[in-house]
Amino acid sequence: MKQVICKEFAPIDSLTIADVDSPEPKKNQVRIKAEAMGVNFPDGLLVQGLYQMKPPTPFVPGIEVAGTIDAVGEGVDELNIGDSVAVLMPIGGYSEEVVVHKAMVQPLPNGVSPAHATALMCAYGTSHHALKQRANLQAGETLLVLGAGGSTGIAAVEIGKAMGAHVIAVASSDDKLELAKQHGADELVKNDDHLADNLKALVKNKGIDVIFDPIGGDAFDTCIRRMAWNGRYLVIGFASGRIPELSVNLALVKGFSLMGVFWGTFVQKQPQDYMTNQQELFQWYKEGKVSPHIHASYPLEQVKDALNAVLSGKVLGKVVLTP
């Protein structure tokens, strides 16, 4: 089988494809034949040594795999060969076959495609946790989503609507804004030199209850000044490349909270809440309240192109790899 190898922290073009023996499941393990592997912004940072986590090298990047169980080890009774499943991994996902402990496996409800399943894990999982556990978003509140054309942004738009919020989508291009509109955004604002004036005109003196920010940089500097009393500003990431600084007097006079969102740690420390969230996402998917947008599917051998596309900021929605 083929898998992607990161031999050392280096530019994405240094990744290699290796042919290795198929892994055999041991006690309480299953082997999954991959049909889709999710590609995420942090994956591209990780292989370059630019992410918070730095695993020992060499390693196989990738955290999301969806496919079919094709082998089970001793002690596995609740899962069977042929089951459609998804798994979230710390690393190791960019591989045609993966072996994992049975407790990590999520059976997929009928009708959930492997590509959509990968999106419903990290991208939708991050946005769901941010809006539910961190912001405690309430029906009728105003939610502003930065980066609304990306995978977590589209997820935040849809989840915000599912939770009853009025959603303002902010994105850098017209095609991203159009996609956000298709996924339920109520208001559209372009992230350009007029962002500050346009937001001020839109929300006036009311302010914004919750801001979802995977961008950072200049957008943070602008949006933080539009917070409502008792507002919650969600720090998701820094896709702009600049980690902004906050004049904390703004939080004092406006009475808002700045909240960090680190989904990977949430999954580790609150596994039951994570599983409950996933069940709710799958239910919303069945009801048509959320529907991930797949931007492109790349063969595993084109992993470099896939990662570079995601890091470019030009992707709309989710990118996946396929065997």
Automatic annotation (TrEMBL):
Molecular function in Gene Ontology: oxidoreductase activity
Domain Enoyl reductase (ER): start-end pairs: 10-321
Gene3D superfamilies found in the cross-reference section: Medium-chain alcohol dehydrogenases, catalytic domain, NAD(P)-binding Rossmann-like Domain
InterPro entries: ADH-like_C, ADH-like_N, ER, GroES-like_sf, NAD(P)-bd_dom_sf, Zn-ADH-like_protein
Signal peptide boundaries: none
SMART domains, alphabetized: PKS_ER
Superkingdom per UniProt: Bacteria
PANTHER family documented for this protein: QUINONE OXIDOREDUCTASE-LIKE PROTEIN 2, SHORT-CHAIN DEHYDROGENASE/REDUCTASE
Protein name, per record: Quinone oxidoreductase
Species the sequence originates in: Bermanella marisrubri
Lineage: Bacteria, Pseudomonadati, Pseudomonadota, Gammaproteobacteria, Oceanospirillales
